[in-house]
Amino acid sequence: EGKVFNLKWGAELVRLLHVAMGSASELEVHLLLLRDLGLPNNPNCQQLAREVTKVKRTLTLSIGNLRAER
């Protein structure tokens, strides 16, 4: 019973991490559009782009680790 619960919980967590990845990718696209329009000369936009990259890397590793555990 505990194993079944962990499998369901793990699958749900992976699903939610994929949702988060989609949101991070959407933000990344918006930042790229701003860059292409020449709008983000603001260092905050550049920092945000770096942070999004870090978040996506972390999400990718987390998803991979959870899948390996199953």
Structure description:
The protein is an all-alpha fold. Helix content is 89%, strand content 0%. The protein has 2 helices and no strands. It has helices at residues 2-36, 43-69. The longest helix has 35 residues, at 2-36. The model has no long low-confidence stretch (mean pLDDT 86).
Topology summary:
Layout: H1 2-36, H2 43-69
Helix pairs in contact: 1-2
First and last CA, distance? 15 Å
Instruction: Give the fraction of residues assigned to helices.
Output: over 70%
Number of helices: 2
- Sequence stretches where pLDDT stays below 50 over 5 or more residues: none
Q: What is the helix/strand order? A: HH
Strand content: under 5%
Report the principal-axis shape: elongated
Given helix and strand content, the structural type is mainly alpha
Descriptors:
70 residues, mainly alpha, 2 helices, 89% helix
In short, what is this structure?
This protein is mainly α and 70 residues long. The chain has helices at 2-36, 43-69. Helices cover 89% and strands 0% of the residues.
